[in-house]
Specification:
Blueprint: E1 2-5, E2 8-11, H1 15-26, E3 31-34, H2 39-44, E4 50-52, H3 53-61, H4 66-71, E5 73-75, E6 77-82, E7 86-91, H5 92-96, E8 100-102, H6 105-119, E9 122-124, E10 128-133, E11 141-146, E12 149-154, E13 157-160, E14 178-193, E15 202-204, E16 211-217, E17 220-227, H7 238-248, H8 251-254, E18 262-276, E19 279-280, E20 283-285, E21 291-292, H9 300-321, H10 325-352, H11 359-375, H12 377-388
Parallel strand pairs: 1-12, 2-3, 2-13, 3-9, 6-15, 13-20
Antiparallel strand pairs: 4-8, 5-8, 6-7, 10-11, 11-12, 14-17, 14-18, 15-16, 16-17, 18-21, 19-20
Helix pairs in contact: 1-6, 1-9, 9-10, 11-12
Length: 392
C-alpha cells in the first residue's frame, strides 16, 4: 500500500473541500484532497449561482475574488410575483445594508482549482473506494484505490466534504447519527440558455406551479419550473418549457423573457435534510455531506462556505495553539446556522410552490401570505435578513 501523511485529509473536491484546503493553506496547515470524479466532471455540474454577502467576503479575504468581482452581478434584492400580477421587491440592501451576488458555482469551482494549482496543492482525482478509518482514535486515516493501486493517507483529522451521496457520513455509527428529512412532492426542471437574463431574480407563485428566473452571467440565463417527479426530461422540449414559463409569469414579465435553445436541461428532486452531529471523533462533516436545502432560498452553497469558514477557523486554532475549543464547538456552531437556513428555505418553498393537496384554499393562503409580506415592513425585514444570510 502506498502511504503518505498530511495534517487534514479532505474527502471531496467540490467547492467545500477545495475552499477548506485553500483556507488551511493560507494559515500554513497541510491537506490532501481526495475526489472520486475528474475535474472536468466536477466542473460540468450546474449548481447554485447566488452568493450571500458573507460568502463574497470570505472569498475576497481568501484572495479568490478577482474574476468574481469582474463578472459577478451584484443585486440589491429579489422580486416575487403572485396572484396574476401582484409583485414585491424584497429589498435586501434597504433592510440589511448588504447585497448578494449572482456568480455561478462552476465559476467558483474554477477559481478554486486555479488557486490550488498555483500554490501546488494536492488533489487526487478519480479515487475509488474512498473510506475514512479510525475516526474515533488519535490516528485516523483515509484509504482509496487509483489505477488499481491501494493508497493510505495518515492524518490528524478527516474533513468529509463529499456531498449527500458520499461515504464520510456513513462511518458515523447509527446510534450516534440523527437524520432529519422532508421530501417534497415535486421537482425542479432547470435549463440554461445563452440568452440575456431578466435584470433581477424573479420568483413566481402561480396556480400552475412555481417558476424562477435567474442568471449566471450577462449572456447565460437560468430558469426553473416546478414539475412532477414522474416527468421525464424528454417530455420537455425547449418549446414546451418556454411556453409553460410564459404561462406562469404575468404577461409583462413573460414578454421580457428572451427564449433560445437550451444548453443544459435537468430535473432535480427537492428535499430538506440535516444530519446531526456534524462531528464525530476526528471526522468533521461540511456542506452537502451534512445537509441539503431546497434551492428556493439559495442557501446550499452558502451553507457549505459557512461550514468551511467555521471548520477552517477551528483547525487553524488547533494548529496554532493546541486548543480544542472551536473544534469541540464546531457542530453546534454550524448547525445553528444550518437550521436557520433550513427553516427559511422550507418557508419559501411552501409559500411559493403548488402542493398536490392544497386546493384553492391552500393557494389563497399562499397569496395571503405574500400579500402580508408585501405590506409589512417588519415581515419584509425578517425575510430580507434571512435571504441575505445570517452573520457568521
Amino acid at each position: 500500500m502506498n502511504q503518505s501523511r498530511t495534517q487534514v485529509a479532505i474527502v471531496g473536491g467540490g467547492p467545500a473541500g477545495l475552499l477548506l484546503s485553500h483556507l488551511l493553506h493560507l494559515a500554513g496547515v497541510e491537506s490532501i484532497v481526495v475526489e472520486r470524479q475528474t475535474r472536468a466532471y466536477v466542473l460540468s455540474r450546474v449548481r447554485a449561482g447566488v452568493l450571500e454577502w458573507g460568502t463574497v467576503g470570505i472569498l475576497r479575504d481568501a484572495g479568490l475574488a478577482d474574476r468574481m468581482d469582474r463578472e459577478g452581478k451584484i443585486h440589491d434584492g429579489t422580486a416575487i410575483t403572485w396572484g396574476g400580477g401582484k409583485r414585491l421587491f424584497l429589498d435586501i440592501k434597504q433592510h440589511t445594508g448588504r447585497h448578494f451576488m449572482a456568480y455561478g458555482q462552476t465559476l467558483m469551482q474554477e477559481d478554486l482549482d486555479s488557486a490550488i494549482d498555483r500554490w501546488g496543492g494536492t488533489i487526487v482525482e478519480e479515487a475509488e473506494n474512498v473510506m475514512p478509518h479510525d475516526i474515533e482514535t488519535d490516528t485516523p486515516w483515509v484509504s482509496y484505490t487509483k489505477d488499481g493501486e491501494e493508497y493510505r493517507i495518515d492524518c490528524d483529522f478527516v474533513a468529509g466534504c463529499d456531498g449527500y451521496h458520499g461515504v464520510s457520513r456513513t462511518v458515523i455509527p447509527a446510534g450516534v447519527l440523527r437524520e432529519y428529512e422532508r421530501v417534497y412532492p415535486f421537482g425542479w426542471l432547470g435549463i440554461l440558455s445563452e440568452t440575456p437574463p431578466l435584470p433581477e431574480l424573479i420568483y413566481c407563485n402561480s396556480p400552475r406551479g412555481f417558476a424562477l428566473a435567474s442568471m449566471r452571467n450577462p449572456m447565460l440565463s437560468r430558469y426553473y419550473l416546478q414539475v412532477s417527479l414522474e416527468d421525464d426530461i424528454d417530455e420537455w422540449p425547449d418549446d414546451r418549457f418556454w411556453d409553460e414559463i410564459s404561462r406562469r409569469y404575468p404577461d409583462d414579465i413573460a414578454a421580457d423573457i428572451v427564449t433560445g435553445p437550451s444548453v443544459e436541461k435537468s430535473i432535480a428532486p427537492i428535499r430538506s435534510y440535516v444530519a446531526e452531529p456534524m462531528r464525530h471523533g476526528r471526522l468533521f462533516l461540511a456542506g452537502d455531506a451534512a445537509h441539503i436545502v431546497p434551492p428556493t432560498g439559495a442557501k446550499g452553497l452558502n451553507l457549505a462556505v459557512s461550514d468551511v469558514y467555521y471548520l477552517s477557523r477551528a483547525l487553524i486554532e488547533y494548529y496554532a495553539t493546541g486548543g480544542w475549543g472551536l473544534l469541540d464547538g464546531y457542530s453546534d456552531t454550524a448547525l445553528h446556522r444550518v437550521w436557520n437556513a433550513v427553516r427559511f428555505s422550507w418557508w419559501l418553498t411552501t409559500t411559493l410552490h403548488r402542493f398536490p393537496d392544497q386546493g384553492e384554499f391552500g393557494q389563497r393562503i399562499q397569496e395571503s401570505e405574500l400579500d402580508y409580506l408585501s405590506t409589512s415592513d417588519a415581515y419584509m425585514a425578517a425575510a430580507a435578513e434571512q435571504y441575505a444570510g445570517l452573520p457568521l
